[in-house]
Design brief:
350 residues; 6-stranded parallel beta sheet; globular
Length: 350
Amino acid sequence: MQAWVFRTIGEPSAVLKLESDFPKPVPKDNQLLIKVHSAAINGLSWKLMKVRPAAWLQTRPAVADLDFSGVVVGGKVDGTELNLGDEVFGFIVPQVAMSTGSGTMAEYVVVDSAYVVKKPKTVSFAEAAGLPIAMLTAFSALFDVGKVKKGQRVFVNGGSGGVGQCAIQICKLYDIEVVTTHSPSSLALISSLNPTASLDYTSAPLTSLLASQYSSPSLQFDLIFDTVGVPELYHASPAYLKPEGVYVDIAARAKLDGVLDVVKLVAGMVNKNLRPTWLGGTPRKYVFCDTDTKSDPKLQHDRLVEGIARVADGIWKAPIDSQYSFDKVLDAYGRGMSGRAKGKLIVNVV
């Protein structure tokens, strides 16, 4: 089969190659064989290609990426809600992708049936492929880690990204006040998501904007969800995050190009979590959150079902920036690594 494969560590533009004779995967146990129609770019994937020491943990050769939509063409459908020929979407658990080298940027992929959900006919393959990892990350950060509740107030830093867009829409659905950020170029997109409020981060330092508008105890946030990775936002958070509030970070450090950046990332996380306030530590709870997609398959499955239903009903918008043909995968990774994408980057395999 055709697949985008990396066999060595390096920049995607240098190591990711389209191979025409990569072995077609064979489903085992509870796995399904999916003919892929669309796949989505994730930041984790290019980091596993190029960033040491994370790249050392990746089994190679490896097919790129995690999200997919497509059609069930083989595997064990008994005991599932699926049949051969069903249009579906889902994801590969990141830990599984790292240990096996499996990925979705290919004509076929095998996936545990627990992470595969039927796609409504009214939702396109591209829309469905853009949902799983971004949506599940937002759900996990808000509810599993942040423990946010109806009526509370959340600040989402980076509302125009894939995860940020999902977080805003989840908050709106669950009656949670949500404030986010925008630039002049993303204002129309953010406005279409109808957050409670949005701040133009290009007009003044973000920490100053937040401190000037949300420092009153009655206006401070219960949760700050940082999808961008801005250390100053955490260090200044006592001005706008409640004393019992939580700062949830999924980016930690926006720039990760090598070992030194990883060392700085780890040192920064240790400092945020362990440095006491009497030594200058920030007196707010800090949690680095990755996408824990493996611990509760049923919960992840139910959230995928809910998310795709909201898109089908027109309540949510799939967070798509742009779409690419299968031969333009490197262009998609280039845009993803540029930091300019406003949503998910979709590759249409078929």
